[in-house]
Amino acid sequence: RMKAGKLRHRVRVESPGIAKDDFGQTVSTWELVAERRCEITGFAGGEEYSSSAEIAESTHKILMRYDSISATITSKYRFVYSSLIFEITAPAENVNMENKEIKFICKVVE
Q: I want to staple 80 with a disulfide (CB 3.0 to 4.6 A). Which of 12, 34, 50, 51 is the partner?
């Protein structure tokens, strides 16, 4: 069972979207899907996942409760915590296939 005390970070879950600017041109944007409490932990690139170059450059794990929204998050989405933006670099992992926790492997981007 996931302890609430571990979930000390509040992240914005954002998905890619399209909007129109002042000139009527379409521009890429990020839309808020949800806010979730999670645990963010760092690790050295390739420390845990060295099978893929993309995953090897990952810098963080984000662990949150499994729910109807977290279950639909894909690598097209991103997480925002404070001034940090996390790009998802690997498929989400339903921890122990119990539908209680979901883990994302991410890297910090600009």
A: 12
Q: How is residue 101 annotated by DSSP?
A: E
Cα pseudo-dihedral 90, 96, 99, 101, rounded to 10: -60
For strands 84-88 and 93-94, give the pairing: unpaired
- Taking only the tens of pLDDT, the chain with its 110 residues reads 666 678 999 999 999 999 999 999 999 999 999 999 999 999 754 444 445 555 557 789 999 999 999 999 999 999 999 999 999 999 999 999 999 999 999 999 97
Strands (E) in the chain, as ranges, are: 9-20, 26-42, 60-65, 78-81, 84-88, 93-94, 101-109
Q: Are 102 and 93 in contact (CB under 8 A)?
A: yes
> β-strands 93-94, 101-109: how paired?
antiparallel
- Quote the tokens at residue 29: 């944007």
What gap in Å lies between CA 59 and CA 45, rounded to an integer?
A: 6
